[in-house]
Amino acid sequence: MLYGMPTPTVRRLLVGHLLRHAREQTGLDLDAAGKLIGKTNSTMSRIERGHTALPQHMLKKLADAYEQHVPNVVDLDELLDLARGSQDRGRWSGYRSVYSKYFRMAVDLEADASAIFQYQTEIVPGLLQTEDYIRALFTTAQLQLSDQSTEDAIEARLERQAVLTKPNASQVSFVLSESSLRRHVGDRELMEAQLRHVAEIARLRNVQIQVLPFAAATAPRATHDFKLFRVPSPGNAGPLEFVYVEDFTDGRYLDGHEDVHAYTLLWQQLVAAALDPVESEKFILRVADEFAR
């Protein structure tokens, strides 16, 4: 595999992605594809969306059927390799159990993505937070976690930050609203340290940070946070792409072509409206200096 061994969740998503690509290449709809292996339209939809996994023998039967329509439409060895272990359990035990169930897929996508694009409005993104900032978030937000749960949450969030510095690290781009830099979390000393940390991370070769200032008159009307994930896929199916949008009690994953295209355009508009990376670093350090006074 070109991209190592993805998490079980992402392996299942990639299997579905490859199957959908193969089906579309054959010109079959979900009904026709389901009849090839005795499955319903709704079951085929769940399989292609990564919600349901097929056993190996059924997966091979479906791939062979697609091959009858379009030779070499799918690499069976790669498909079966991805499918192995896609049902593994236990990843969300211990300190990782603090993650909300709706957020766990985002954590897996984050771990396996080759590129991540994040727009953040009110607080510093989790991947850029210092330990003190994380601790203050849980204290000031009055989440009523036990002391152990707070420590687990801190450990889990700090673990995620390895995506920025691991070997062959992802390309990660942020557009941060000015409000995320000025919103007080903890005291002024904590905020100064947090912003200097953001400026330091911005110097990593695989990280790009831009600030969308209040004065950006051309800023598009992006009123909520979102993430775009791009995960490499074998063969000619193209990358797996997801948009993650979160509200107070839930998170949504969008992978439709129109949704991904719309958010990609929005991202490009935000990048164009924001300060460039060099000016953004200077801006972040100026705000840090303000907290130091």
UniProtKB/TrEMBL annotation:
GO terms for molecular function: DNA binding. It comes from Saccharopolyspora kobensis. It holds the Pfam family HTH_31. This is Helix-turn-helix domain-containing protein. Transmembrane segments: none annotated. Gene3D superfamilies: lambda repressor-like DNA-binding domains. Residues 19-73 form the HTH cro/C1-type domain. It comes from the Bacteria. InterPro entries: Cro/C1-type_HTH, DUF5753, Lambda_DNA-bd_dom_sf. The lineage of its organism: Bacteria, Bacillati, Actinomycetota, Actinomycetes, Pseudonocardiales.
